[in-house]
């Protein structure tokens, strides 16, 4: 299994794709419209080529023998069809050229790949900086240029090593992504021993998750918004583990999992709530399932009537 955001770890597929591109680059015409016709020969050459690891071709491993190709057959001088002899010779020449190109491509790609590899090892408990998978996944990146956003976040502790080149990282609870990263996506964290204040991040934390998957810490305020069909009560939510800059307005239907916080907000703001707002809050509470069938149908007689705790969506004392 490949680690997150590191397709190079699927080496077999990447190597095949690279060699296929190399082959097509040598034989395709200038218009690049005949590359589909070259795929069959390219696949045949690849499957008949011996691997440096197994010293056997894919054909030999699967069938136990090398395929009988047209160019491997000796065409006698007195063949009756000149076209058949020409086809056999041309096929043999093309296959030899293709095999030579594939071998050179393998050596060249291995050389360049080894030059860019970092042989780094970490231990469980080490603090590392994790490369941001994609800044566009973050809700806090809306309206911002991803090229100017931070490339690494952390420090985050390593839980354990997975295989030889991957590590499992202890990610924040609101990051809903795979926790295993390739070593190339990690960087050793170096704390500033002289100025401890520089070790504290000054930017808002990234939110690689949906709002409903986060944990609400408190309800700070409420407002009424209108659409073409109806009005909605919205609540300003402070999310756990997020700065105040990440507070968001949420409709009551998105806060079903945080009913105690909504009730606590109603209780603390009941004296300052107008009857019209109480009616809307009552409907919100019924949406959350906090009112029984009887109390949910109690009307407000006048604007001067003091709402009861049941009408306001509050528990009775």
Please give the count of helices. 6
Q: What portion of the residues fall into strands of 2 or more residues?
A: 15-25%
Tertiary shape: elongated
Strand order of the largest sheet: 4-3-2-1-5
Structural class, judged by helices and strands? alpha+beta
Helix content, binned percent: 25-40%
Domain Chromo: 214-277
InterPro entries: Chromo-like_dom_sf, Chromo/chromo_shadow_dom, Chromo_domain, Integrase_cat-core, Retrovirus_Pol_polyprotein, RNaseH-like_sf, RNaseH_sf, SH3_Tf2-1
Pfam family, one: Chromo
Biased composition (Polar residues): 295-317
What does this structure look like?
This protein is of the alpha+beta class and 317 residues long. It folds into three domains: 7-116, no CATH class; 127-192, no CATH class; 211-297, Beta Barrel (OB fold (Dihydrolipoamide Acetyltransferase, E2P)). The chain contains six helices and eight strands. It has helices at residues 11-27, 39-48, 58-63, 82-116, 259-269, 275-288, and strands at 127-131, 152-162, 166-169, 180-182, 186-188, 216-226, 231-239, 248-251. Strands 4-3-2-1-5 form a five-stranded antiparallel β-sheet, with no helix packed on it. Strands 6-7-8 form a three-stranded antiparallel β-sheet. β6 and β7 (231-239) form a beta hairpin. α1 (11-27) crosses α2 (39-48), α1 packs across α4 and α2 (39-48) packs across α4 (82-116). The longest helix is centred in the first third of the chain and has 35 residues, at 82-116. The two termini are 57 Å apart. Mean pLDDT is 70; it is low at 208-212 and 290-317. Residues 214-277 form the Chromo domain.
């Amino acid at each position: 299994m490949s680690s997150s955001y590191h397709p190079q770890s699927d080496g077999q597929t990447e190597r095949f794709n690279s060699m296929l591109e190399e082959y097509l680059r040598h034989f395709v015409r200038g218009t690049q419209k005949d590359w589909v016709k070259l795929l069959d020969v390219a696949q045949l050459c690849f499957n008949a080529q011996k691997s440096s690891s197994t010293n056997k071709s894919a054909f030999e491993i699967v069938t136990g023998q090398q395929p009988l190709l047209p160019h491997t057959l000796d065409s006698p001088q007195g063949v009756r069809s000149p076209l058949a002899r020409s086809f056999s010779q041309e096929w043999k020449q093309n296959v030899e050229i293709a095999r030579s190109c594939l071998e050179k491509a393998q050596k060249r790609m291995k050389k360049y790949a080894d030059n860019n590899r970092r042989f780094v090892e970490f231990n469980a408990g080490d603090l590392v900086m994790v490369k941001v998978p994609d800044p566009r996944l973050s809700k806090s990146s809306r309206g911002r240029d991803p090229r100017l956003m931070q490339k690494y976040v952390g420090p985050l502790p390593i839980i354990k090593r997975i295989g030889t080149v991957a590590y499992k990282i202890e990610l924040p609870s609101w990051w809903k992504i795979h926790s295993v990263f390739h070593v190339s996506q990690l960087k050793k964290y170096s704390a500033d021993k002289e100025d401890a204040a520089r070790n504290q991040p000054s930017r808002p934390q990234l939110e690689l998750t949906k709002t409903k998957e986060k944990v609400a810490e408190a309800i700070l305020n409420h407002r009424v918004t209108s659409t073409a069909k109806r009005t909605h009560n919205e609540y300003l939510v402070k999310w756990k583990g997020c700065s105040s800059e990440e507070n968001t307005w949420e409709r009551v239907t998105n806060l079903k999992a945080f009913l105690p916080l909504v009730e606590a907000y109603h209780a603390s703001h009941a004296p300052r709530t107008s009857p019209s707002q109480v009616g809307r809050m009552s409907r919100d509470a019924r949406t959350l399932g906090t009112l029984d069938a009887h109390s949910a149908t109690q009307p407000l007689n006048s604007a001067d009537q003091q709402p009861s705790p049941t009408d306001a969506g509050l528990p009775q004392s």
